[in-house]
Specification:
Length: about 100
């Protein structure tokens, strides 16, 4: 195990951490990435709350309708917005 303190958490505690991380990641992308903001908005997700919780995301219709991101889409996005060479800048600190 790489991180026993995380990998051996009781399931309920892990779900709480996963949910917080999931919502933080979505909020981060929506705030900083035009590419993902547009992609998620097309599926009806305009806020982290619209995507539901980490454990229930598969049951949220809007989440099911987000198409997979292809490498060519990312490449085209960078050509369209050369000022932003990354789809979303890497966060400076761990999300949890």
């Amino acid at each position: 195990m790489l991180s026993p303190e995380i990998e051996t958490l009781p399931w309920g505690e892990q779900l709480v951490l996963d949910d917080a991380s999931y919502r933080a990641q979505l909020a981060y992308l929506l705030e900083r990435s035009r590419f993902y903001r547009e992609k998620l908005a097309a599926a009806g997700i305009e806020s982290a709350a619209d995507a539901g919780s980490a454990s229930r995301r598969a049951a949220v219709p809007a989440v099911k309708s987000v198409p997979r991101t292809l490498r060519i889409e990312v490449a085209r996005s960078m050509v369209r917005s050369p000022e932003s060479r990354w789809v979303a800048p890497w966060p400076p600190a761990p999300l949890y």
